[in-house]
Amino acid sequence: MSHDRKKHWEDVYAKKTPAEVSWYQTEPAISLELIKSTGIDQTSKIIDVGGGASVLVDKLLDQGFQNLTVLDISSKSLQLARERLGRLATQVSWIEADVTEFDPPQKRRL
Fold it and tell me: Which has the closest alpha carbon to 93: 61, 67, 58?
C-alpha cells in the first residue's frame, strides 16, 4: 500500500470532519439514482470504493440493501462512518485498503 497516499488520507480525516471536505454530500442523489437505474435487488452486492465517511452506505441501508461493503484507504474515515452508523455498522463489511492494490476475495463469475 502506498504509504504516502495512506498518510495523506489519514491526515485529511484527522484534521477535518467529513462535512468539511469539499466532496461531502448530505444526500448522494446521483449515486443513489445510478444504483437504482441498474435494477439490482436489495440482496445484490454493492461495494462503495473510496466510500470512507460518505453517507451513501447509510442511505442504502435505509433503502433495505443488505450486502454492502465500504472500501477506503483511510482507517480514520471508516471509523467515522462506523461510529455514525452505530450498531447498524455491523451490517456492513469494512475494508481498509488502497483500491489500486486491492485483490477482492470474491470475483464475479460470468
Answer: 67
Whether the per-residue pLDDT at 1 is higher than 60: the answer is no
The model carries a pTM of 0.82
Mean pLDDT in residue range 49-68: 94
> Which whole number is the average pLDDT over 59-68?
96
Q: Is residue 91 within 8 Å of 68, Cβ to Cβ?
A: yes
Helices (H) and strands (E) in the chain, counts: 4, 3
The answer to whether residues 40 and 64 touch, using CB atoms and an 8 Å cutoff, is no
- C-alpha cell of 54? 460518505
Contact present, 40 and 104 (Cβ < 8 Å): no
> Which of 16-20, 49-53, 64-68, 70-74 has the lowest average pLDDT?
16-20
- In sequence order, the 6+-apart residues with CB closer than 8 A to the CB of 35 are 46, 60
Q: Is 96 exposed, middle or buried (0-12, 13-18, 19+ CB in 10 A)?
A: middle
